[in-house]
Amino acid sequence: MRHQLQFLRVVFVAIAIFFGLTGIAAAQEITGSIVGTVKDSNGAAVAGATVRITNSDTKLVVRTVTTNDDGEFTVPLLPVAFYDITLEATGFKKHIDERVKLNVNERRSVDIALAAGNVTETVTVTSEQLQVDTQTATASNVINGAQIVELSLNNRNWAQLITLSPGVTSNVADQIYVGTTNPSSGRSNQMNFSVNGVRQSSNTYTVDGADTTDRGANLTVQTYPSVDAIREFVLLRGLYPAESGRSSGGQVNVVTKSGSSKFHGDVYEFWRNDKLNANTFFTNRNKPLGVDSNGKAIRAPLRYNNFGGTFSGPLVFPRFGEGGPSIVKGKTFFFFSEEF
Questions:
Q1: CATH code for the structural domain at 31-126
Q2: Mean pLDDT, range 49-73, rounded to an integer
């Protein structure tokens, strides 16, 4: 009997730890919310309007809600993406806001005025890509995928772009290598960024909601997604929301890409070579590697070849049973990225 009680205690503690860790994992926010108010042309609230949220890339309807008595609606926990917002109400024209961009940790406000008319008529609006966030007091900056890919990065490490945000000071080397160890010196590859004057070890880094900070020194990162695989990342700098705990410095939240309704892919090589480099002032003066046949200081050798590629699209499944097409696609999507 005594052994059975001890066994039950162990099982109970294990279950409690499991659910406790599950709560911690769920607290890492990787989604956003769309909120709004629907009114008519006179400014009166439109209650009972149907709001349909459709992913612009996959063409899947992800959520359908109805406005309340005040004409308000809320759609929480949406993955980072572009969305088409369709509104329908009796006595009003159908309204579509196309490609509304939702960033990570964002509460996007979309206020809509419906025009009186037949529901078979449609008013289509192309959403503005930039909007002032009026829903939260959190100080943050979003670095989108286009910036990550197109801005100059001398060794394709996305962390260099953290310095684009105000209040960030950097004490890192000119090159932040990918990985926890610097291959040239063997030392740890430290992320020495200070956000608003807080210690450099007081930052938290997450990738798709998972904490990837090295909790030994709190100065290195365990996961380095390829810059071609990152959809965007956000740096929270102050007045943090409830889900951003533990660290008093910057909260860096990286979100990777996902597939769409069409197949896409690319291959690339990132190439650096000393033949393309200019010599430094001290190398020209001291000539540590000697001189070439023209009497000029030899440049330090550099060979950097980074190959990679991405591939994404819908998963294709055979249909079993009777009726419908023999091939089914467009319900599940994938994204693959690899670097060498």
A1: 2.60.40.1120
A2: 95
